[in-house]
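*Target chain*
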Amino acid sequence: MFTKISSSLKRVLCFLPVCLMIFSCTHSVHMYAAGDIEKPISVTSMKQVSSDSEQFTVLGFIFDTNYVDEAVEKLRSQCEKGNIHFISSRYSTSHGFLSWKNKLHLEGYCIE
C-alpha cells in the first residue's frame, strides 16, 4: 500500500501523529468534596458564592504555591458578614505541551 504513495506524503503521514501528540491537551478531575448538607434552622439571607484559582507549572517548575489560600480568601471576601455553608471543592488539572495548570474551584452558600 505504501509503495504507491510518494515519499513526501509518507513523511506527512508519519509526522501527523507526532503533531497531534504535541499539540493535544487533556483535562482530569482529581478530587471533588462536598460538606455540611444539612440545612440550617434559621436563614435570613442566603446567596451562592464561588471562587477559582489556578497554579501554572512548566516542566515541573512551580511558580505559584499559594493558589489554595487565594481561592479560600476570595470565597471569604464574598461573605464578610456571615458564614459559608454547603462548601464544595473541585481540584482538577489541565495538561498542555510540557506544562499544566492545577485548578481549584470552591463553591458555597453565604448565610447571614
